Task: structure prediction
Amino acid sequence: MRVMAIGGNPDDIEFMCGGTLLRCKERGDDITMCVSTNGSQGHYIIGSPHLSNIRKREARQSALVAGAEIILLDLPDAGPYPEPWQRDLYVEAIRSANPDMILTHYPTDYMTDHYYTSQNVLDASFWCAVPQYYTQSLGTSVVPAVFFWDTLGGLGGFQPTEWVDVSDVWDKKVEMLLCHQSQALWLKEHDDIDYVEFMATAARFRGLQCGVKYAEAFTALMRWPRVKPYRMLP
Result:
């Protein structure tokens, strides 16, 4: 199977579904990580042009750890919007990966880069299969299934319907996240947030719900023609 994760900012994928991607890789899936923005606003001190280069490099390092292909749309932070020209970017990205399943943000997550990415993914993941919607690549043969990952802190109305045990790949998930050192240091110094502990707290809570040490939680987009009569998550 081909699995694609599409996040708003560098590090979102690692934080919210990195373990699931690793589990997919273990079972033989092809995995692709797509990042909407270049992280240009993610620091108080480092200027945007230099920071965006750092964060794109960190995203590539994380994908290398996971054994994933990576697509960087390179929009600026606060940049994703549900506009036709941006929909084209997402359509082309999805067509190039040709996924059976897409993982992305919940539509009511806490900030614009997340919920507009979600909206663009929902729109593009339908139009990617329409042959006369033209981008550089040909249309896909199917409309992919979409699963929304957890919100930060589990708020915003998110209620999981599926869980993935990521206990056995936890250390590698942490390794992926820590590729984003610009964010790990910034969050610790300026917000007193321990990047890894924050992620672990959320994963332990979801693990408690399903009887494992660490889990990631999802809910499926229940719209035709995306529902499948079998489990797609690992």
